[in-house]
Each structure stands twice: as C-alpha cells, then as structure tokens.
Amino acid sequence: MASRVIEVDPFDLIVFGATGDLAHRKLLPALYHRDCDGQLPDEARIIACARRDLEPGKYREWAEESVREHVGDLDETVFKRFLERIDYLAVDAGADKGWQDLAGVLAERPDVVRAFYLAVSPDFFGPICERIGAHDLVTDTTRVVIEKPIGKDGASAKKLNDTVGEVFREDQIFRIDHYLGKETVQNLMALRFANALFEPLWNSAHIDHVQITVAESLGVEGRAGYYDTAGALRDMVQNHLLQLLCLVAMEPPESMDADSVRDEKLKVLKALMPLDPETVEKRTVRGQYRAGASAGGAVSGYLEELGRTDSVTETFVAIKSEIANWRWSGVPFYLRTGKRLAARVSEIVVQFRPIPHSIFDGEAGSINANRLVIRLQPNEGVRMQIMIKDPGPGGMRLREVPLDMSFAEAFKVRNPDAYERLIMDVIRGNQTLFMRRDEVDAAWAWVDPILECWAQAKDAPKGYTSGTWGPSASIALIERDGRTWFEDMI
Ligand code: NAP
C-alpha cells in the first residue's frame, strides 16, 4: 500500500552543522527519501553550512557517501537530482565569516519558504539567531528548527527561548523532539481518538498504571563529554519521556490543530504532581552503568569511558510520577530510561485493571488484566494482550494472547524515519508535532526540583551492571506498589 504524498512549497533549507553527525546520519537521508517519494518540488534547495572551508563539490561527495551508507539501495536518478539540490557555504556561527555569502544566496529567492535548521551545539543557537536577525534574513515564511537540548534547566531554557524569540515569532520556531515524529507516536493519537473503543476506558477507573520505557543498549560511546554535563533526566526525561506521557494522558484536543494539541499537552505537564526532597528520594532512582556485557561482548563502565572517577551523572533514571487531575488521580506513570540496558526498546505499556469478578473456576487458570503495548522501537507496532479460551475440547482453559499489529508487516511499506515527517512539517509550517515554548517551560518546572534535590543529595547514583535493566532500586520502586516492569515482550 502506498502512502499519499503531497508536494510541499518550494523552499531553501539552510542546515547549520551540515558536516555533523545529525546531518549525515539523519537529515540528508531523510531529505533523500522525501525526494524519492516525490515530495520535494524542483525548486527545493538545500544550503549546507558549517565552519570549515569546503568546495561544494567536496561536500556533495561527503553527502553522497553518507546517504549511500545510511540508506542502502538508492534510486540513482533521484539521487543525482538530490545531490544537485545541495550547495555548501562556509559560515561561522560565532563570527562574521560567510554571512554575507549566505545573505546573497538567500536573496536570490526571497519568496520561497526559508527554513534554518540548527544542527549545531546549543551554544550556537543564540549567536546564529542573532546573526540571522542582524542580516535581515527573516521573511514572513521563514522558520527556525532547534534541536534538543533546549537549556540545562528552566532558567537557561528561558534565556535561550528569549534570544530566539527576539528574532523569530513563536509560530516560526520549531523545537524538534524526534520522538513525536515516530509513526507509532502519531498512531497513539489515532488509536485514542479515531476509535470509540479506548477512550471510555482511558481513565483511573479502568487503567491501573502506565509504564514508559526508553531503553538503550549502547553506552555514551563518543559523547561522554557532552553527556556528563546532561545526564538521563535532562537528555531523555525532560523532553522525550514527558512528551510521550503527555500524549498518553492528555484530554482529547478540539482538533489536530497545533495549538489545540499543545494546549492539552501543556495541561498535563502543569498537572504533574511536583516532587519535593522527600518524594524525590522515594519516587526517583538514579543509576550509573558499571562494566558488564552487551551483545558485542565485555564493555567498560561509564566512569572508565569518561576517564574520571568523580562523576555523579546518571545514565539511568526511573521515576514514579502522578498526574493530579480527575482523569488520572491515583494512576502512577512509571518512567524509565537508561543506557547500556538489556535491550534497545522504547515502549508505552498501558496496564488495565483486572476484571471485577471471575465466572471461571480454578481449572481455567489465572486471568491477566489487559495490557496495551505501544512499541516505538524497534519494530514499531501496537499490541493488545487479551484473554482467550485455549483451543480444543479440553474444557475451559484461559490463555493470554497478543492481538498484534506490527506496522512493517501490516503495511508492507518502508517505515519512514521521524525526521522525514518532521522536516516536511517544518516546510509546511505545521507545528503540531513540535514543542511550544510554554511546554518546555512547564517540563523544566517539573524537572528542576528533581535536579536540585539530586545536586544536594549525599549519595551517588546507584551502580548497575551493563546489560541489565538498571539498578535494583528501580525494581523496588515499582514492586513496592505491587507491580512489576514489563520486560516479557522485549
Ligand atoms: P556534531 O557532529 O558535533 O556536529 C557539529 C556541527 O557544528 C559541525 O557541522 C560543525 O562544523 C558545526 N560547527 C561547529 N562550530 C561551528 C561554528 N563556529 N560555526 C558553524 N558551524 C560550526 O554535532 P551533532 O551530533 O550533529 O549534533 C548537532 C545538534 O543536534 C546538537 O545540538 C545535538 O545536541 C543535536 N542532536 C544530535 C543528535 C544526533 O543524533 N547526533 C540527536 C539529537 C539532537 P565543522 O565540522 O565545520 O566544524
């Protein structure tokens, strides 16, 4: 089955950080795929910018290598056309070099959509925006995309948002959280709001609890320097996990219009029960991986990788959060994320309450409560665990089976990467899947007190062996409530 593709308006996409990892691994392959599907108009240009001096031809060679490496089989005709769209300019984000050249190139087409994608260190977000403003490069259809992290805390996020906001209107600012571009995440909205089945049950009367797990099997790899200044709470919870929580917990928005959806997400963030020093201790667990094993064999611990022994940066976090409103009162949302865990998997598990009364005798076996599992990666899909009768004449025996829908199998189409959808949304000016400023502020307002408590705490993060599911305190966190993390489907 082919999906519908609507061509976007002609655009100039200016990628700052075009020689970096994100551009090569994600942005260029995503743009190539969009070109393949016929979504890019003939007049679409990609203006790659980075600090170093490079001939455009040399940059195109690099781009060719990375797209070949990350995409696999290519349509050579489309690929030739795709490479021809790319220009390269050496532009220094922190100095004047190259800005006149960029202004000249953009002035050739003042009427097309102009999108600045800032795939550079966040330290450059402010300086780049200031120079964009100073060179008068913002037209009415100009947008800017900023990558995470948006600040290190509420105060620095505010400063950054203020700087960007001096140059761009809020409706021109696209704060990207690539989790929101994943097919399954959007499917969560389809599941909830395009089916009559779930919404009546989507509340504390029928749902026991929700688990959101984003587990990585890799360690910090080459990013230890950056990671040590962030940690799992800032890097994953403040953005990705809280955004997922919002989509599970929000009220039905009035429409799919960007502000309707974001208004509802904001209400959830504001209703998150704040954690104080006492509750932080009881409801959060910080961990740091030690040496252990991964699929590739023995691996060293975080501190060895970092080359220091004094870091208290967490590579794992588990949190029991609650949402103080009518719909969710008393329903815990357990959040968990970490590096070097037993598997690479991102899942939302919605655990329903048990049936109120069983009509079956003991011979039938136990009856498990229903569970809806929304799998973000790998193998995006949705699965509902239900009870059925075991086939055959052997009496009434009950068995739990999955009603399973793997998107790859169900639709037999390539599963597009989140960046494909999100970049095209930027060009279209659709902000539904991007974070509004007040959402970022509200997320930090919930996260900041946790960071402060941890900073005051005397104890270090709890060690966990690489290749496990994190520190035992994380298991205790949920088992104290008589529940358990679901790892059986992984
Ligand atoms: P990276 O590999 O370190 O690349 C940095 C880029 O910034 C390079 O193209 C570099 O150009 C350019 N740059 C550095 N100094 C510059 C200057 N003074 N003027 C102009 N350009 C300059 O970084 P990355 O991993 O791609 O990450 C980019 C951003 O995306 C970061 O904010 C990161 O947090 C975010 N992000 C990345 C990922 C990912 O998977 N990589 C995922 C989510 C978010 P030169 O090569 O010419 O120095």
From TrEMBL:
It holds the Pfam family G6PD_N. Pathway: Carbohydrate degradation; pentose phosphate pathway; D-ribulose 5-phosphate from D-glucose 6-phosphate (oxidative stage): step 1/3. NADP(+) binds at residues 51, 148. Its EC number is 1.1.1.49. The keyword Ubl conjugation does not apply. GO terms for cellular component: cytosol. Residues 189-485 form the Glucose-6-phosphate dehydrogenase C-terminal domain. It catalyses: D-glucose 6-phosphate + NADP(+) = 6-phospho-D-glucono-1,5-lactone + NADPH + H(+). One of its GO terms (molecular function) is NADP binding. Substrate binds at residues 178, 182, 216, 235, 339. Residues 14-187 form the Glucose-6-phosphate dehydrogenase NAD-binding domain. The active site is at residue 240. GO terms for biological process: glucose metabolic process; pentose-phosphate shunt, oxidative branch. InterPro entries: G6P_DH (IPR001282), G6P_DH_AS (IPR019796), G6P_DH_C (IPR022675), G6P_DH_NAD-bd (IPR022674), NAD(P)-bd_dom_sf (IPR036291). PANTHER family: GLUCOSE-6-PHOSPHATE 1-DEHYDROGENASE, GLUCOSE-6-PHOSPHATE 1-DEHYDROGENASE G6PD. Belongs to the glucose-6-phosphate dehydrogenase family. NCBIfam families: PRK12853.1-3, zwf. Catalyzes the oxidation of glucose 6-phosphate to 6-phosphogluconolactone. HAMAP family: G6PD. This is Glucose-6-phosphate 1-dehydrogenase. It comes from Stappia sediminis.
